[in-house]
Design goal:
803 residues; seven-stranded parallel sheet; 6 domains; alpha/beta; binds zinc ion; globular; binds adenosine-5'-triphosphate; single chain; six-stranded parallel sheet
């Protein structure tokens, strides 16, 4: 008997293994690893979606196997490489296999379950379940359902007053359109034309076209391009008359792009040297990782594009990852114009359908160059020649939910499979990568200059403790404002950064000091002026802005902190004539918002771009000659050993937006810590000294890259339970580690309560702990036990967030 081992899509420890199913005879050809199936699962026998993991001749399972109910794909959606990658990923990130398999696929291919109940006995009149009925005796159970109501439904199910069914909704929709094509001989069309009534103008035009080209084919638009007056009804009639044949053909939803022409640049000597090292590795199929450390504006992208071009010449494909926020139209257009018709773009701005179509183009080998954000690391390219990660230091390459993978690790793994090089590029490499280059594990390639004798911007540190401020606007030094004014006079552009990290706009009472906090989380609510509301950034809570203090009823309640909206208002008061664009979570939350703002700024439809960290990367606009950092310090004070590194990176990157073309650039960094080494070295754009200094501090503190780290966090609705559990875990784990391992904590997480769950954590720092992996896997198993209900465990290897 043919047996399929299936991974069921229930992300839980109990189901985190393959289950055996019989392959019915008629499905034996298509039941291969990597296809999605529907199988009956559990006592209820509800159909669930799953993936065939392996096939074999017999089963170890003693009982009778259930057969596969349905196969969803004619060809596997995951190939052997992807299945292997999933297996590695699950182990490396302590994740369920099913979570890994799903992460690799576009969401259109994920099953979407609906829970529907069917009444088997009438409900009491006042039963709350009545409100869920959408048919006579059935209703949908919403995903976000009140837990009391859900418990009530369960009770009704147990007492057999209703039954609950899982229904699978496919999100996959292949888009099709009608294609009309000529199906007669030229002479036949000629006869028809001669017979046509003189006043049937459209028909005559159509026939005329067919006489000239009997096999003309295309969709309505193609026909209309030839015959602009043509109505689609005329085409339908022509089909009915047998003049044309009609067919449904599959089409791709492709996001629109503006076309630009970019010419290939003559590489500088430094670029050329880097390029040659890389292409040697491509042509020799060497699995070598390069760290391309190039100052801002040094032309790293140019090197990537040439490396991709080389891989293409060799008949290979290429993948380029960029952080979500640098997937600007500018970047995408640059790649697309170099490789017309070969590029697929994957980012979160696409609709589910567009993403699915781009994925299919890659999967079928119709797109050979992929540009995308984090999850594009799993793009189903084959025969990869080079893998690139731009801005490799960016935190957004690490996923925050299960599987907690880092895209860098994924592409390094794929490079092993394809025996190809990886290029990690940045002006400010992560300490981890730079240290690996130091050790020779990566090959360091440097670009120290901008091309065409373009100078690095001059950076001025403005000491805000002493600086003269603009009257009534304490966030601005006179110096910075004077510079902005100069730019306005010269019709040049300015970029102003508000360093928002760990900083928000909150409401406080001036009389009693009361701060308005989220009822569910230990964090103050943030003011959003555009929607006139207070919002919690951790849960969905939202409430109106109160007119008086809820504690003392004073009316002297006002906002503190520096929000982008407040700064925008102040700028508008200072420069009423200036055209301002603001870029932050509020203005970019709608689809394409980010793109739209960057395009507008690029067309010089605004003089000043004000924004959060989002504006620090990827912008390459010749008219930007001033960059101002309003508050450099906020990210320095965070309780995280990477605080200096992040501040340095942010300041260096944003400074790099200035003076990238003919006009020279200036940067002004406002700070209350002018002597801080991260700020000083960012002002000098001196990555190497920063690297040396920071490495010494990391060594002293025993932090990465000298140590590895794992974060273990538990949460529970009751604080004392969470505390008890975290101590219990610590006592259990400590003896399993060597004396060299350091366990920090237990400590409450910085924001201890989120969404009414209390979070406590441990951090393990270690160099070499062969037994740690097994211990953590055992811990995961133990936490699934009955006496651990209500707890959630999270294990994060090499976490980037400790808060
Ligand atoms: N060899 C070259 N000759 C002339 N111009 C070049 C050359 N290489 C790159 N450029 C131009 O220099 C500018 C900066 O290049 P690019 O955007 O590739 O730099 P980058 O290192 O990726 O920058 P950043 O990391 O700051 O985003 C671009 O406008 C690019 O067209
Ligand atoms: Zn909240
Ligand atoms: Zn008050």
């Amino acid at each position: 008997m043919a047996v399929a081992q299936v991974i069921i899509d229930i992300p839980a420890q109990q189901t985190n293994r393959p289950f055996d199913y019989e392959i019915p005879e008629e499905l034996s050809d298509i039941a291969v690893p990597g296809v999605r199936v529907l199988v009956p699962f559990g006592r209820s026998g509800h159909l669930r979606q799953g993936f065939i993991w392996r096939t074999q001749d017999k089963s170890e399972f003693a009982g009778r196997l259930k057969p596969i109910a349905q196969i969803l794909d004619l060809d596997p959606v995951l190939n052997a490489e992807m299945l292997g990658l999933a297996s590695w990923l699950a182990e490396d990130t302590f994740s369920f296999l099913i979570s890994c398999l799903q992460t690799m696929l576009p969401s259109a291919l994920r099953a979407n379950y609906q829970r529907r109940f069917y009444l088997t006995a009438p409900l009491a009149e006042n039963d709350p379940v009545n409100q869920l009925l959408d048919h006579e005796a059935s209703g949908l159970i919403p995903d976000k359902i009140d837990s009391a109501l859900l418990a009530h439904l369960k009770r009704l199910e147990q007492s057999q007053q209703l039954r609950i069914e899982y229904q699978i909704k496919q999100k996959t929709k292949i888009k099709q359109e009608k294609q009309y094509s000529g199906c007669l001989q030229m002479t036949e069309y000629q006869d028809l034309f001669n017979q046509a009534r003189a006043n049937a103008v459209q028909q005559r035009q159509l026939l005329q076209l067919l006489v000239a080209e009997p096999s003309f084919a295309g969709n309505v638009k193609t026909w209309q391009a030839q015959l602009p007056e043509l109505k689609s009804s005329t085409l339908t009639q022509a089909v009915q008359k047998g003049w044309l044949k009609e067919a449904l053909v599959e089409v791709y939803r492709q996001p629109e792009v503006e076309s630009v022409t970019t010419t290939k640049q003559q590489l500088t000597d430094e670029q050329q040297a880097a390029y040659e090292a890389i292409i040697a590795a491509i042509s020799d199929a060497q699995n070598q990782t390069f760290l391309l450390e190039g100052v801002t504006g040094s032309g790293k992208t140019e090197v990537y594009l040439d490396a991709i071009a080389y891989a293409r010449q060799q008949g290979k494909t290429a993948l380029m990852l960029v952080p979500e926020i640098s997937l600007t139209p500018q970047m995408v257009e640059r790649v697309q114009s170099r490789f017309p018709h070969e590029v697929a773009v994957l980012h979160s701005g696409l609709s589910i359908g567009e993403r699915y179509d781009e994925w299919r183009r890659i999967e079928r080998g119709e797109a050979q160059v992929v540009v995308g954000a984090r999850s594009a690391a799993f793009a189903p390219l084959k025969n990869i020649g080079v893998l690139i990660m731009d801005e490799e230091h960016e935190g957004s390459y690490k996923q925050d939910d299960m599987p907690r993978y880092h895209a860098r690790d994924v592409i390094l793994k794929r490079a092993e499979t394809y025996h190809c090089p990886v290029i990690l590029g940045s002006a400010t490499p992560s300490l981890e990568s730079r240290a690996r280059a130091q050790k020779g594990r990566y090959q360091l390639l440097k670009l120290t200059k901008r091309p065409n004798q373009i100078q690095m911007p001059t950076v001025n540190v403005v000491d805000m403790r002493q600086a003269e401020k603009v009257a009534g606007k304490s966030d601005f030094s006179l110096q910075l404002i004077t510079e902005v004014k100069k730019r306005l006079e010269r019709h040049e552009q300015s970029v102003l950064l508000l360093n928002r990290r760990g900083y928000a706009n909150f409401i406080m009472c001036r009389d009693c000091g009361h701060v308005i906090k989220c009822p569910n989380c230990d964090i103050s609510l943030t003011l959003h002026r555009d929607i006139q509301a207070l919002k919690c950034h951790y849960c969905d809570h939202q409430e109106p802005i109160p007119a008086t203090c809820p504690a003392c009823h004073s009316s002297k309640i006002r906002d503190y902190g520096v929000g982008t909206q407040k700064i925008e208002q102040q700028l508008q008061e200072l420069f009423p004539e200036a055209r301002l664009l603001r870029m932050d979570v509020d203005t970019t939350s709608r689809k394409g918002g980010h793109q739209r703002i960057i395009r507008q700024f690029g067309r010089h439809e605004a003089d000043i771009l004000l924004g959060t960290q989002m504006i620090a990367k990827g912008l390459d606009f010749p008219e930007v000659t001033l960059v101002g950092v309003i508050n450099a310090d906020t990210s320095l004070s965070l309780p995280d050993f990477r605080a200096s590194e992040r501040t340095f990176q942010l300041l260096t990157q944003v400074s790099g937006r200035a003076g990238r073309a003919a006009k020279s650039g200036q940067v002004f960094i406002q700070t209350y810590n002018p002597d801080n080494y991260a700020i000083q070295l960012a002002a000098k754009q001196d990555y190497e000294t920063f690297y040396q200094t920071e490495m010494r501090l990391r060594h002293q503190g025993g932090y990465p890259p000298y140590f590895y780290t794992v974060l273990i966090s538990v949460n529970h609705a009751q604080e004392d339970q969470a505390v008890k559990k975290v101590y219990q875990i610590q006592r259990w784990l400590q003896p399993k580690l060597s004396p060299q391992a350091i366990v920090l904590g237990p400590t409450p997480r910085m924001i201890t309560r989120v969404n009414n769950q209390y979070y406590y954590q441990l951090i393990i720092k270690y160099k070499n702990e062969p037994r740690l992996l097994i211990a953590l896997q055992t811990l995961i198993m133990n936490m699934q036990g009955k006496n651990n209900r209500g707890f959630q465990l999270r294990i994060d290897r090499e976490p980037l967030q400790f808060m």
